[in-house]
Amino acid sequence: GNGNTTSSSSETISDKDAHILRSITATPSTQEVGGNVNITVDVADNIGVSEVYVNIIYPDSSSTNTSITSNVVGYTYYLNQVYNQYGTHYYFIWADDGSSNFVTSSTNSFEIGDFSPPTISNVQITTSSPLDTDPSFGWINIACQVTDNVEVTQVYLNITNPDGSW
Predict the structure, then answer these.
(1) With the C-alpha atoms ordered 75, 76, 79, 85, is the resulting torsion angle positive or negative?
(2) Which of 44, 53, 80, 81 could potentially form a cystine with 94 if both were Cys, beta carbons 3.0 to 4.6 Å apart?
(3) DSSP-derived pairing of the beta strands 36-44 and 102-104
C-alpha cells in the first residue's frame, strides 16, 4: 500500500514558427495585355496555414490585396487572373498561421504589354484601265487589312520606285 502524490503542473505549447515561402513565381513573367498571369507560392508551416494573400501594386500605383487561402493544391497557393494595365506589376506574398506568426515575401514583378506585332492581310492592288503613269487619268489603289490584339495606331505604305528611290 505504498503511494506517492505529486502536485500537477501544466505547460502551454504555442506555435512560434513562421511560415516558409518557397518557389514564388509569376507565369509567364511577360504577358500580353488581357492575358492571364498565374502567381504561385509554396507555403510550408509545421502547424498549419491560416491565411495567404497576394498584394499587387499596379503600374499606376494602385494596389489590391487578394486572399488566395482557398486557391490551393497541396502546398501551392495561386492567383490566376487577367491584367489589362500596361507596365511592370509588383507583387509580394503575405501568409499567417493564426498564431500571430506571419511572413512577407520579397517583392517580385511581372510585365504586361503589347508584345505582338500587327498582322497585315488581304493586300489588294487595283489599277485604272488602261494603267498610265500620268496622274490626271491613271491610278493605282493599294488596300489591306491591318489587325492587332490591342490597337493599330498607324499604317504606312512605302513604295520603291524603279530607280531605287522611295
Answers:
(1) positive
(2) 53
(3) unpaired
User: Residue 137 carries which side chain, given as an amino acid letter?
Assistant: F
* Phi/psi at 63 (5° precision): -150, 160
In the block, cell 524603279 appears at 162
Here the cell at position 147 is: 489587325
Q: Which grid coordinates belong to 146?
A: 491591318
114-152 pLDDT per residue, tens: 988 999 999 999 988 877 767 667 788 999 999 998 888
Q: How far apart are CA 51 and CA 72, in angstroms?
A: 11
69 grid coordinates: 487561402
96 to each of 14, 53, 79, 92, how far by Cα in Å?
Answer: 15, 9, 17, 14
